[in-house]
């Protein structure tokens, strides 16, 4: 960084320095505000727009290890029927990792969102060694789909019947 001698033209030099500082600060702010972190929506925002039909497409990646139908058998991973708000590591007869058992709690939306984004990073020692669903929108869609596969789904995500009716009304 160079220092400028401003004594002979102090008012204009001071203005130039102030302008340079202002431009630097505005550039930094623009970079911060346009970053993905600053633009990221809250989980509530993402869930209000979540599309279970798209989540079903995302679940295809999960289907090699998990079943979803009520009373379905466990595969490499446990059956996921009614997973939303279910206690973690609670499917009878499935052998969970010690790490997941110690994670404890319930699969509330925020915990499930965090876990599905990076299973091994969220629960080191889990047997679910997959990269996770890193796209925020896809993850919300997946959670909305999992939510529908329950005897008591939460009122989240887009209502597929309403969406179909709106699409039909537009045509």
Number of E-type strands: 0
Q: What characterizes the major β-sheet?
A: none
Uncertain runs with pLDDT below 50, 5 residues or more? 28-38
Write down the oligomeric state. single chain
Instruction: Write down the overall mean pLDDT.
Output: 82
N-to-C span: 62 Å
Q: In percent, how helical is the residue content? A: 40-55%
Radius of gyration: 25 Å
Structural class: mainly alpha
β-strand percent reads under 5%
Q: How many helices does DSSP assign? A: 9
Walk me through what this model shows.
With 171 residues, the protein is mainly α. 50% of the residues lie in helices and 0% in strands. The chain contains nine helices and no strands. The protein has helices at residues 10-33, 36-39, 43-48, 52-59, 98-103, 109-117, 119-122, 136-148, 160-170. α6 packs across α8. The longest helix has 24 residues, at 10-33. It is globular, with a radius of gyration of 25 Å. The chain starts with 9 loop residues before the first helix and ends with a helix. Mean pLDDT is 82; it is low at 28-38.
Keywords:
50% helix, globular, mainly alpha, 171 residues, 0% strand
Topology (SSEs and partners):
Elements: H1 10-33, H2 36-39, H3 43-48, H4 52-59, H5 98-103, H6 109-117, H7 119-122, H8 136-148, H9 160-170
Helix pairs in contact: 4-8, 6-8
At a glance:
With 171 residues, the chain is mainly alpha-helical.
